[in-house]
Amino acid sequence: MEIILKEDVIGLGYKNDIVNVKPGYGRNYLIPQGKGIIASESAKKVLAEELKQKAVKLAKIKADAESLAEKLNAVSLTINAKVSSTGVIYGSVNSLQIADELQKLGFNIDRKIIVVKDVKAAGEYVATIKLHKEVAAEVPFTVVAENAPAAKEQKVDDKKETKEAPVVKEEVPVVEEEVAPVVEETPVEEEKAEE
After folding, report:
1. Considering the chain, what is the average pLDDT of its residues?
2. Which of 41, 70, 100, 120 has the highest CB neighbour number within 10 Å of its CB?
3. Confidence band (pLDDT; 50, 70, 90) for 4?
4. What is the pLDDT of residues 95-148, one digit of tens each?
């Protein structure tokens, strides 16, 4: 069954595309939701006339998408994620986190047009953003372990403790002298208890 799409449908096509779908999907979802109409001969003629009239607008939309793609290609993201000791991320990094990071940089990108493969470990990856049916941008992003800076701080603290260690060692013999008489008194008390 041929359908003319009236709006972009993720995974199927873009507005004004003629797509082939199963009859049930077309009749039960696309047409009732207003996302498409049946591609009859008269509807195709109307579509062709509309496309001729909108050619200038479509060219501007494509140019805007290309300029946004150039800006996005220059962007590099860093995403913090909680990582286990083996380097595996708890959960995964998906289009939602990438959309949030882009939002922080001033790009209002819908997460539905961001395509990213399974990211389950720290490292460098690339997300594809489909801005237009002919324009896509690739955004590199790095997944960084969220708890890695804390580990570095602990190492620094360990070094500070080793510098202070001689001071602590000087105080330790004094403490041992006080403890020694207590240890000697304990067996005496046990002997009294036995008598």
Report:
1. 78
2. 120
3. very high
4. 888 889 889 888 888 888 888 887 888 888 888 988 888 888 888 998 888 765
Q: Where are the beta strands (DSSP E) in 68-154?
A: 77-81, 88-93, 114-115, 119-121, 123-132, 135-145
Do 86 and 132 lie in one domain? The reply is yes
Burial of 116 per CB tally in 10 Å (0-12, 13-18, 19+): buried
Coil, strand, or helix at residue 123? strand
Tokens of 7: 């709006």
pLDDT-based confidence at residue 194 (cuts at 50, 70, 90)? low
The reply to whether 10 falls in a domain is yes
**Where do we find the tokens 């507005």?**
15
Q: Is residue 51 within 8 Å of 16, Cβ to Cβ?
A: yes
